[in-house]
Amino acid sequence: MLLDKIRKNGDIRRIPPEQYPELAQEIRDFLVEKVSVSGGHLASNLGVVELTMALHLVFNFERDKVIWDVGHQSYVHKILTGRKDAFDTLRQKGGISGFPKKCESRTDCFDTGHSANSVSAGLGMAYARDLTGKHYSVISVIGDGSSTGGMFFEALNNAGRLNSNFIIILNDNEMSISPNVSGLGVYLSSIRTAASYNELKDEVKRKLSRVPGLGEPMVSGISNVKEGIKKLLLPEMIFENFGVTYLGPVDGHNTQQLVRTLQDAKRLKKAVLVHVVTKKGKGYHWAELHPEQFHGIGPFDVMTGKPKGGSGAPSWTQVFADALISEAEQEPRITAITAAMADGTGLKAFAERFPDRFYDVGIAEEHAVTFAAGLASGGMIPVCAVYSTFLQRAYDQILEDVCLQKLHVVFAVDRAGIVGQDGSTHQGLFDTSFLAQMPGMTVIAPKNDWELKEALHYAVTECSGPVAVRYGRGEASRSFSCLRKPFNDRRAERLRPGSDATILAVGHMCGTGNAACRILKEQYGISCGLVNLRFISPLDQETLLACAEAGPVVTLEDNERTGGVGERCAAYLMEAGVPAKIRILAVPDRFVEHGSPSELYGELGLDAASVAAKTAEFVRSTAQEACGGTPEAERQE
User: Which pLDDT does position 629 carry in this prediction?
Assistant: First the structure.
């Protein structure tokens, strides 16, 4: 196999050009085989095989720099830089990441995971290169979906001033995760369909070169003719208006054509954008047919494209999606907003049912939030569904445009907490901290599927200001299904009694807390109560005080410790003058790498066994302290 000859960066240059198509097919077969087992981002990687090959044929990434926007399309780059044999560990704990990681390889120059930042980072690297007198190429690869992000245009505005080489590759596959709906997408489509431009340009060159005596001088001035043809046949050249030279469109599945174009781009002493047209999912029938389903997928059957495993129980996302449609059927003012994630956030069905009330704004979370604020100002009830990790990008807009004006915007915060294999850029571990600190923001964390439906109903029909409902990834919990306390009193819910201590749990962590209470009873002889906080903000201070006065309190959450529920509970008790004994169990203040959720919860000490052990130690140490003894923790020190 040709792929076996590639053991390290640069080995691809030993492959003869006539074998490039064969190598591309081997890479695609390899990707399908490995991702079908581990899960991951398949369609995006299948679409950039030839493009990545061309990059490695023209550049040397031991020296040159490539920044992959988002980074989920970097699998081929990893294969060509000697990490092929590690693909059995893809996205597994301790294995290689599904995104670029500087700690993995010198050929990964910038860690990415969110969109629209590659051109900004690349431009900074280009200026740093020039200032330090070094000589290497800088290439930013960005998709047409990511190009809807505001940072892309901010970076373009700056890039036109550069007087040295910087290459932007616009990977145009007409998709983000779902099909693109942006104005930029319409613009790129108009360029793609103007095929006569490239044909006419080449024909002009050929004919001029045949004119005796005058041919060569005329061909040397062809760039001026080229610019005229562009302006004649194409829409206004938006990129060149930024001062960035445009090359393309180029067939993204023709390796040799890509190589020639990249070599041309490399010679220019300015910022240049290479427009590459690719097909997402290319080479695998099911991914070509349903690229949105194979954007990020779990293990699947190669022959049928069907996912493997799963109990068939609805996910948190599906529960939310069904509940939102039910609410919208009763309330015509409800609108739904997504930032290019109609499938991921479950809003695709809403879009089909209420097309006039659904808005996909592209990969532009900041705009999505302020757009929602505008809708709320006009009397609508906007529901903005965003992954926790991506909502971070709109912090300023939530605070200034929504909370400051007390607008009734509902944030459906999907993928909150540990999400697993996508790793540090995608774990939803900060939303509690930054949302709960905002004045007037109500933050709700439902414990199970029923509570998610009720929380959404409460958020839509009974809240008057901003409200966020956070829920996790995967199958929705059905624990405590017989307990159905309404939300309108904004109170916590006692799930089980206990005389020795109380665990205050957030959202689906109630299930972990319940299992820990059973372990405490059976293995440690400790009677521990369990309370479902339900409201992160405002806290149910009365219930908190009652629990603290009764004995030791343990808070349990899947958010970082700083600014989380535990710290807020401890701060309130201190201010209230209650001599409470409180232990905070939360995610340490660090980034959490990839792995299965169960592995990560165990590593973080947030699985049931760890929670039980820590609670038992805390109960015993506080009892010894009350009797005048030395706490266990101090003796161990």
Answer: 58
Return the closest-CA partner of residue 18 out of 6, 2, 33. Answer: 2
Which tokens go with 273? 């954008």
Q: Which residue among 129, 357, 393, 568 is the active-site one?
A: 393
pLDDT tens-digit readout, 320-332: 999 999 999 999 9
Q: How far apart, in Å, are the Cα atoms of 240 and each of 120, 161, 172, 246, 283?
A: 17, 12, 18, 6, 33
Q: What angle do CA 385, 388, 392 make, to 5 degrees?
A: 105
Distance CA 376, CA 406 (A): 10
β-bridge pairing 582-587 and 535-537 = unpaired
Q: What is the 3-state secondary structure (H, E, C) of 167-210?
A: EEEEEECCECCCECCCHHHHHHHHHHCCCHHHHHHHHHHHHHHC
Rounded to the nearest 5 degrees, what angle is found at the Cα of 596, between the Cα atoms of 590 and 598?
A: 85
Query: Is the link from the previous residue into 355 a cis peptide, with omega within 30 of 0?
Result: no
365 as an active site residue: the answer is yes
- Name the β-bridge partners of 569: none
118-157 confidence digits (pLDDT tens): 999 999 999 999 999 999 999 999 998 888 888 999 999 9
Helix (H) or strand (E) holding 556: strand 553-560
- Cα(419)–Cα(599) distance, rounded to whole angstroms? 11
Q: At which residue do the structure tokens 């004649």 appear?
A: 232
Kindly name the residue from 50, 365, 366, 493 that is annotated as catalytic: 365
Helix 509-524 to helix 608-626 angle, to the nearest 10 degrees? 60
d(CA 39, CA 87): 11
For the stretch 615-624, contacts whose Cβ atoms lie closer than 8 Å and that sit 24 or more positions apart, written own/partner, are: 615/501, 615/503, 615/516, 615/520, 615/526, 615/528, 615/554, 615/583, 616/520, 616/523, 616/524, 616/526, 618/501, 618/552, 618/554, 618/581, 618/583, 619/500, 619/501, 619/526, 619/528, 619/552, 622/552, 622/581
The dihedrals phi and psi of 129, each to the nearest 5 degrees, come to: -60, -45
Q: 269-316, pLDDT tens digit by residue?
A: 999 999 999 999 999 999 999 998 898 899 999 999 999 877 678 999
Residue of 484, 410, 422 lying closest to 447 (CA atoms): 484
At residue 265, what is the residue type? A
Listed in order, strand segments (DSSP E) in 450-534 are 467-470, 493-496, 501-505, 528-532
Which residues are paired to 582 by β-bridges?
Answer: 553
Identified catalytic residue from 83, 84, 129, 280: 280
Q: Do the strands 528-532 and 166-172 form a parallel or antiparallel pair, or are they unpaired? A: unpaired
Model pLDDT, residue 223: 47
For 104-189, list the strands marked E by DSSP. 138-143, 166-172
Is residue 633 over pLDDT 50? no
Number of Cβ within 10 Å of residue 493's Cβ equals 19
pLDDT, position 114: 92
pLDDT value, residue 313: 86
Q: Would you state the pLDDT for residue 175?
A: 57
